[in-house]
Amino acid sequence: RLYNKLPGRHKRVHMVEEICGAEADLQQSPLNRYIGFAVHEADEKKVRLRFFNEGHGWDNPNGTTCGGIFYTMAASAMKKACLMKGKRVHLSDMAVNHLRPGFADMCITAEAEVIHDGRTTMLALCDFYDDKGKYLAHGKGTFLVKPTGEGEAD
Asked: What is the three-class DSSP state of 45?
């Protein structure tokens, strides 16, 4: 009962509910489940996904993390950011610019936010960091808002 009277409890409970909702939506994708992305933080301003690149399974021939992991993670993070604004979307266009490589046994964090929340389109940005806080990559995506009542599955 004392916990119910602590300041900020409502905000913490709401944040947990948002994370659970974003995680449930994320896990609907077989690819996201297979790769192992997880929602670390989610609210109406930002979504953070984490991926632990265990071993060399996702390496390219250069011995660094395959760019497709970054691309897939950016798409997932930005779609979840759109979802946190209450809209389901289809990816229309996306690009990822790589600044530093990812490596085996590295925790990669993707932070996504919506910068345009339109009626028919949304624009989101996604920044990637390693477990030491180094900036790895930057992505941006354009999304088409699904009409109300359109199927939930992608």
From this structure: coil
Q: What are phi and psi of 9, to 5 degrees?
A: -60, -45
Q: Please give the sequence-ordered ranges of beta strands (E in DSSP) within the chain, or none if there are none.
A: 38-42, 47-53, 89-98, 106-117, 121-129, 135-145
How far is Cα 136 from Cα 126, in angstroms, rounded to an integer?
11
DSSP-derived 3-state class of residue 86: coil
Over the chain (154 residues), what is each successive 10-residue block's mean pLDDT? 41 50 68 80 90 92 94 95 94 97 96 97 98 97 87 51
Binning the chain into helix, strand and coil, the percentages to the nearest 5 are 30, 35, 35
* CA–CA separation, 35 and 110 (whole Å): 14
70 touches 102 (CB < 8 A): yes
Supply the pTM of this predicted model: 0.79
**E strand residue ranges, 5-88:** 38-42, 47-53
Local structure of 143: helix, strand or coil: strand
pLDDT in tens, 107-125: 999 999 999 999 999 999 9
* DSSP category for residue 4: G
- pLDDT tens digits, one per residue of 52-77: 999 999 999 999 999 999 999 999 99
